[in-house]
Amino acid sequence: MRTLGVAILGLFAGLAVGFLLFSEVVGRLAVEDGQVHAPWTFVIGFGPQVLAVVGAVLAVVVDNRIRGRKRQ
Questions:
Q1: Other CB atoms within 10 A of residue 9 CB
Q2: What keywords tag this UniProt record (predicted)?
Q3: 5 burial class (0-12, 13-18, 19+ CB within 10 angstroms)?
Q4: Which whole-number Å values give the CA distances from 27 to 19, 35, 44, 46, 50, in the listed order?
Q5: 17 Cβ contact partners less than 8 Å away, ≥ 6 residues apart
Q6: What are the angstrom distances between the C-alpha of 67 and each of 2, 58, 62?
């Protein structure tokens, strides 16, 4: 149950970082003449979801590593 909670926490943290990074930083860098061209729209659109999955996986890996060290 703890692993599920950590995964959900990592999912939300990754989603928040993804929205901040891709919507604000990458979005502002990719704008040319007030428009965002085709490849960047996919990066900005799918970037937060990818970082959400990465955040969930990373949170579980870090939690398992911390738990392993506490047992020893």
A1: 15
A2: Membrane, Transmembrane, Transmembrane helix
A3: exposed
A4: 10, 10, 7, 12, 16
A5: 51, 55
A6: 11, 14, 9
Q: For the chain of 72 residues, list the mean pLDDT of each consecutive stretch of 10.
A: 95 96 89 86 92 97 92 79
For residue 48, the tally of other CB atoms under 10 A from its CB is: 18
- Amino acid identity, position 1: M
Look at residue 57 in the predicted model and tell me its pLDDT: 97
Residue 12: its pLDDT value, please? 97
Which residue from 67, 68, 55 is spatially nearest to 7, judged by alpha carbons?
55
